[in-house]
Amino acid sequence: MKMFKSKLIISVLVVLFTISITSCDKDDDATPPVVNEVSIKLDKSSVDFEKVKQGDSKEVILKLTNSSKATINSLSSKVTISGGAIGVSFKFSPLAPGKSINIPVKFTSAKTTKLGIYQGKLILTPSNGKPVEVSLSVNVVKADDKPVEGKVVVDKNAINFGSLPKGTGTESMKEVIVKLTNNTNKTLEGLTQKLSTSGVGSVKATLVNFSSLAPGKSINIPVKFTSGDTDPGSFKGTLTLTPSIGEPIIVNLSAMVIAANVTGSIVVDKNSIDFGSLPKGTGTASMKEVIVKLTNNTNKTLEGLTHKLSTSPGVVGSVEATLVNFSSLAPGKSINIPVKFTSGNTDPGSFKGTLTLTPSIGNPIEIKLSATVTDSGTVTGPTTGKVVVDKQSVNFGSFSKPGLAKKVTIKLTNNTNKTINSIKLDFFTSSTNGSSSSSITLSGNSSTSRTHLTNNGSIKLGSKFSPLAPGKDVFITLDFTSGNSGNFNGKLTITPSIGAPIDVLLSSSVK
Question: What's the Rg (C-alpha) of the chain?
């Protein structure tokens, strides 16, 4: 509710009338006063004067009834309010049990009273019994001779949120926008809201950054229902919007909370992983990662997911799984779960294990894991993948005179599942098959730097080699220096210990 703070001094007029009548005759049979119980009853627990223009007043009648068994001999009143003046004036005589009187309560607004909504309270205290409090509220509006034309309207007078499953996830929430438009000829200076509900669930309405609303303008009011963790049932309520112009607007609300029946299941794209044969060690050749794709094929948001890894006794190697930044998973969505095996510096042997994924919906999911650890550098089974180079041919270009140089690097990559223990380099002065002019084999940790003559210059071949694990590279450098005029067409044949030989054609021209 929007409140207006007054910077003016507001007088509070409280008119108290207390009449006390006491009988002088002794009556031994009279019912003694009850001081700790409520002895008076009012027909209203609150008084809303609604809109009162500056300089005007408004009166509301309260009906007071003696609900006790004893006569009330006196009644006092006390009023507090944040602006304007409240007058309470009544004539009182002893009030017998069951009898009633009317009490006028009048609010008076001065012409200088600050515009806005004010609240207060009226306390009525009988001679016997507890005091009774009445809440007071009033909306002081501008005294304007120009009549209001048009209305403040909403685009919907009822909202049915439909059936939502119990819970606190996104599928158990629904938001509807109410559009409020000022179709009057005056600026809307104030707007308050009140929600009254019954049944299950909860609702919230938000007046987003409201200050004022010019004629013809609109604002959106989000109204959100949440089922919550309650038993299934129905929801009824009203949203009352009270503008400073015109009459209050009531929007009826309804919803149904149903049981959170889950349909579908949480699934993975693989129920077993065989990491294959990996050499013992801690390098990249001794590691392998496999991605498990988990998908929420249910009608409910997955709010939780845990994992557990278990291995058989006496196994070698180790495995880890990572739930990367998991928070929740909406229906139809998927996440990738990396599962990584490392051989480690253990004796060769087999690995067996289980990865158990436990979602907050449905049953746990088991994924069987297996691997074989071999001696370092030895991988059993068939070779998969290829050994490749980044260049199938090298043209050093055309040179205008002797003594000019150009360097080219060839990258060889092991894209197989096994380690390359050696490579053989054969240099041919002709691109056609024939005897090589030079041949060298590199193995272990070795290197070469050898110069080969061509018919128009020379090529220096260089490389540093060590056993090449899967996914690793080795570089071979070719330094050409121009000599006599002529054309050269040769080749370099690279023969790895795994796979087929690879030919790289070489050419140059010296004018």
Answer: 46
